[in-house]
Design brief:
Layout lengths: L2 H7 L1 E6 L4 H13 L2 E11 L4 E2 L6 H11 L3 E6 L5 H17 L2 E5 L6 H11 L5 E3 L7 H11 L2 E8 L14 H6 L13 E7 L9 E9 L2 E8 L2
Parallel strand pairs: 1-2, 1-5, 2-4, 5-6
Antiparallel strand pairs: 2-3, 7-8, 7-10, 9-10
């Protein structure tokens, strides 16, 4: 059986792509398992900034990530600020479009926040799109080590200033970072302590050349403006 025939037999899925390490490692695990044919990456982009929502990653980097991962990008544009009713309406449109194209599953990189998982399951119930959580309840310190050992390279793009000093924005997600995290900060940042931008890993055909640019603080968060370099 050739790869084309195999893909026709597997269920089609999207990856909910945040631009960060959790979605990247979820994609890695899904591809290794081989159960699904991942046919696209679904990402919310804040229109006012032209950046990945919450993570603050430039759309230029987002597009390069998806090219390196071999995934068509599906952008869901949202305003800033974004009322929940608008977010849900635009996501519902994206879900309906995916279902109409024969896509039956969507993969999330959620780790342990039960209310987030329940929200996703509730909103997707009856739509024809089934959520999949390949990293669910894996202990986060060993998981962080597994991500690093797999070859995933990422930088902290955003930090919650209530939980981490602004200087952490722009740092590489590596063993030194894990050792430097204050007590009570989740090693994967699952409680929102930080968000990352992936630049290399087993899911990519090539590494992205990215440099740390300006650091800014806004709305209680510290951002490092990551920039593509030649």
């Amino acid at each position: 059986m050739n790869s084309s025939q195999l893909n026709q037999q597997r269920a089609k899925a999207l990856i909910s792509w945040s631009s960060g390490k959790d979605s990247a490692f979820a994609l890695h695990e899904i591809r290794r398992a081989g159960e699904f044919d991942v046919v696209g990456a679904l990402t919310t982009v804040t229109e006012a900034f032209d950046r990945v929502s919450i993570h603050g990653v430039r759309q230029e980097i987002l597009q390069a990530q998806c090219q390196a991962a071999g995934l068509p990008l599906r952008v869901v544009p949202i305003p800033y600020p974004c009322p929940n009713v608008i977010y849900e309406a635009r996501m519902a449109e994206a879900v309906a479009r995916a279902v109409s194209q024969g896509i039956t599953h969507i993969v999330f990189g959620d780790l342990f926040l039960a209310e987030i998982r329940a929200y996703r399951e509730r909103k997707l119930a009856g739509t024809g799109l089934t959520p999949v959580f390949p990293l669910w309840e894996r202990p986060t310190l060993p998981l962080a080590h597994a991500m690093i050992e797999s070859g995933i390279e990422a930088y902290l793009a955003t930090v919650d200033l209530k939980k981490l000093p602004a200087e952490f924005a722009g740092r590489k997600f590596d063993l030194r970072l894990l050792a430097d995290l204050p007590d009570g900060v989740d090693p994967c940042g699952e409680n929102g302590e930080f968000h990352t931008c992936v630049v290399a890993g087993p899911i990519f055909s090539r590494a992205l050349a990215v440099a740390a640019g300006e650091r800014v603080q806004r709305d209680g968060y510290g951002y490092c403006d990551l920039i593509m370099v030649n």
